[in-house]
Structure formats: structure tokens, C-alpha cells
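Entry:
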Amino acid sequence: MALRRIYELAPEEGRRLIIAEMRRPSPRGGRQTLTILPDETLPETDSVFVDNFEKNDNPDIHSVLIARYGSPNIFSRVMALLDERIGNMDCYQQSRLLAYCLRVDASGSIEPIRRALTARGKGNTKCYPNVFRSVAEFHTSPVG
């Protein structure tokens, strides 16, 4: 809440502090605060977001940051993550990474979305019934 207030009162300083918090392996700000910046993407933080997602015990916020601010520069890294983990990763994280892919390359995202919809079997996280709804919470596209 303090970060939001600083951003309201001193946007330049608030922006600097919010971006610094985003870079932390365990950001202290919540989703609403960390996604308040008007930027479409933050290319300077791309690799940090993906690195933190891969290394962190609780990567939920990092999947949100990738979905919200990730630039096309990390598309191949995110696709590689999905390729190795789709159907076996946390539903929240999977849907955020799929939303990022859909935002960056809608036609290139059809196959991972199809795989998420058909991922079944032992060890599967059973995200398939909610893929469309959960991805649409972050991004929608007319491609299909």
C-alpha cells in the first residue's frame, strides 16, 4: 500500500521503487501494486522476471509480471518453459504464461493452449477445464 501511495504522490520515485521491487526474487508488493505502471512492456526487466519465475519457490507473482509486462524478447524462453511443463505446472502460473504468449504472438500460442486443454493423465494438475477462462482473465484474442 505504501508503494501505491508513493506512486500517486511522486510518480517518478514510485515507479523506480516499484520496478526495484519487481526485480526482487520475493517481491513484497502485491499484484495490484506491481501491475499499476502504465507501461505496455518493461523490456529491461524481462530476463529478471523469467529467472525469478524459474528459481523461486512461489512463482505466482513472477508469472503475473511476465503476463503483464513481458516483451516479445522472452517469448522463446516462456515457450520453452511451457513446452517442458504444460499440464504439470500450477494452473495460475500456466494460465498467466499462456496469456503472455497470446498477447505477444496469438497465432504462435494456439498449440500450447491446445496442449493445455488436452493435458490429462497421472501427475497432471488438471487445469484443462478452466484454461480459456483463466487465460482470458489476463488476455483475450480473436485468434482461434
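The two ends are 39 Å apart (CA to CA).
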